[in-house]
Design goal:
The protein has helices at residues 42-54, 62-71, 84-92, 117-125, 138-146, and strands spanning 2-10, 55-61, 95-98, 110-112, 131-135, 152-158, 178-185, 191-197. The chain is an alpha/beta fold. Helix 1 runs parallel beside helix 3. The protein is globular. The chain starts with a strand and ends in a 9-residue tail after the last strand.
């Protein structure tokens, strides 16, 4: 399977609390949740729905898994008008969680991966199928990139600067070159950028 990630981020790289102002979104004093609600147009909504429909399985970090289980795992189609494909995919396809603390997950179809995460994910990628998708899960996404396990990365960039919140990429960390596969901008100014990791960047020399 191809391992792909999809992350909603602000112009200043924040990914925390995109959907609502829940208690989870307020960790570390964060007060600006819900910044992505209503920001994309119909084409962006269709792109997200189609992406979830392509998934053969999902790989999630513990925090994102618990948020998804408490929302998508309990809602009905009447609760999510326009997002039924997302709900169906998350509830019918296998979910794998990278966690050392999650025990006995209640959401049907969930498997907690063993401590040797690199080997477990390599085994998943070796399975036949299309896509193993990661949504949200910032800590996991950074780890996957650092360990060269990401095949394709999609950023949905919302035109807002928050000035606070957890960012997808840390201030200091490993460097990575990216090849742009696809880029589009919708009628509300939201951009979708699809990248493939391309090794280390080349730097100019004196």
């Amino acid at each position: 399977m191809k391992l792909t990630t999809m992350t909603q981020v602000t112009i200043d790289g924040v990914m925390q609390g995109n959907g609502a102002a829940s208690d989870e979104d307020r960790r570390n004093g964060f007060e600006r949740g819900g910044w992505a609600l209503g920001k994309g147009d119909n084409e962006t909504h269709a792109f997200i729905n189609q992406t979830y429909q392509r998934a053969d399985a999902f790989l999630l970090g513990r925090r994102t898994y618990e948020l998804f289980a408490g929302s998508w795992g309990s809602w009905t189609v009447q609760d999510v008008p326009g997002w039924e494909p997302v709900m169906r995919a998350l509830n019918t396809r296998p979910k794998y969680v990278a966690s050392t603390t999650l025990a006995d997950p209640a959401w049907s179809g969930t498997t907690v991966l063993p401590d040797d995460l690199a080997t477990a994910i390599a085994d998943l990628k070796a399975k036949p199928g299309g896509e193993l998708q990661v949504h949200g899960s910032g800590t996991l996404t950074r780890w996957l990139l650092e360990n060269d396990l990401v095949d394709e990365m999609t950023l949905i960039v919302v035109p807002v600067i928050l000035g606070q919140g957890a960012r997808l990429f840390p201030e200091t960390g490993p460097d990575l070159a990216l090849d742009l596969v696809e880029s589009r901008v919708d009628s509300k100014g939201v951009t979708i950028q699809v990248y493939r990791p391309a090794g280390r960047p080349q730097y100019a020399t004196a």
